[in-house]
């Protein structure tokens, strides 16, 4: 028994589980919860990249391997409970804009991701990214959590069918509330809510698994036909970059767009989930933020090499944090779940949105708390923060929301004659944001 306990003690000491006010069991449950809520990326990312001509089988492996690599780095090196995987907005931009609309091949498009990752890495080691982050005022930082919370809520409502896209008139409409899929989702929401009211440990994970079981028995989703399968070969997309094709001046706006989108997505996510976990200091900064930034920079570079898109900290990490995850052990467990998914992908892919969607809605609700820290009595703080929240939610784009705040904040301070309140790093972010809006392909 002593020998069995020794490695557990070593793990607990390394991740400082007790000091973080957590337990080994809670960290494991949190890691599994994070994985379940973001496991859709295993299916959705390859489906989107298939439109760019990237074969689905190898793309699935690239998605999982990137998640394992980045999340392990985040857990073991940065010691934070954040999971890393390919970003949704960036994969759509690459597939539908860079490849389908602008007619670049996917090898050239992935080269832009590679260059963005290398640039991230250089800026991080030079501490330029930290300098830029220090320039962001606390009001904007708190608005990220609120905006991403509503963004998650909308994803959950839409994925479950509770809210649907409108066909005429209003852009959205109520789903078929008495249909079986929506009723399963409502059951999941009510179950998670009830368990949280009763302070039941692992409420979110229990709600997801119970809803998945109900979806299977009610015919909303088909249960997995098999539990285990061998992963496809990664060879067709491994190291298939066209670096030379990406070195043309005409391609620079695409690299810039991917860079800015990835920068603001990662930054906003790190600050938002850290705020919810209680990691931020009195100034709203994340101590030792350079470590998570190194992890996401390396993950993005790695992602391009193995054949997938920009990767970084995932907003679904908030579900694990709500389940009690407070250390890097949560991320390690999530990475191990992704590793298992290489062989258990049929089961993971069978978990329907009616099961994980309610968890996203609940997490979105919980992420509204920082709105109380935004200064409603100062319009120079309130207007930029409001723009961040509103545009994140209504444009369905985290990057657009964050960059709008970078532009509006210095504008409001200039109008108020309070230029001294603007830090140098924010001027740089404002300039990059303006370039983002100028060069972003709106087609």
Bulk shape = globular
Mean pLDDT: 85
Percentage beta strand: under 5%
Number of helices: 18
Strand-pairing-aware structural class = mainly alpha
What is the count of distinct domains? Answer: 1
By DSSP, the count of extended strands is: 4
The termini sit apart by 63 Å
Rg result: 21 Å
Strand/helix succession? HHHHEHHHHEEHHHHEHHHHHH
Q: What are the segments in which pLDDT stays under 50 over at least 5 consecutive residues?
A: none
Portion in helices: 55-70%
What's the main sheet like?
2 strands, antiparallel
Going across the biggest sheet, name each strand in turn: 1-4
Quick recap:
The protein has a two-stranded antiparallel ribbon with strand order 1-4. A two-stranded antiparallel sheet has the order 2-3. By secondary structure, it is mainly alpha-helical. It has helices at residues 2-15, 24-38, 41-49, 56-78, 88-99, 106-125, 128-134, 138-160, 180-197, 203-218, 252-277, 290-306, 317-322, 328-350, 353-366, 379-394, 398-416, 424-439; strands at residues 84-86, 163-165, 172-174, 311-313.
Describe this protein's structure.
The protein is mainly α and 443 residues long. It has one domain. It is built from 18 helices and four strands. It has helices spanning 2-15, 24-38, 41-49, 56-78, 88-99, 106-125, 128-134, 138-160, 180-197, 203-218, 252-277, 290-306, 317-322, 328-350, 353-366, 379-394, 398-416, 424-439; strands at residues 84-86, 163-165, 172-174, 311-313. Strand 2 and strand 3 (172-174) form a beta hairpin. The longest helix has 26 residues, at 252-277. It is globular. The termini are far apart. The mean pLDDT is 85.
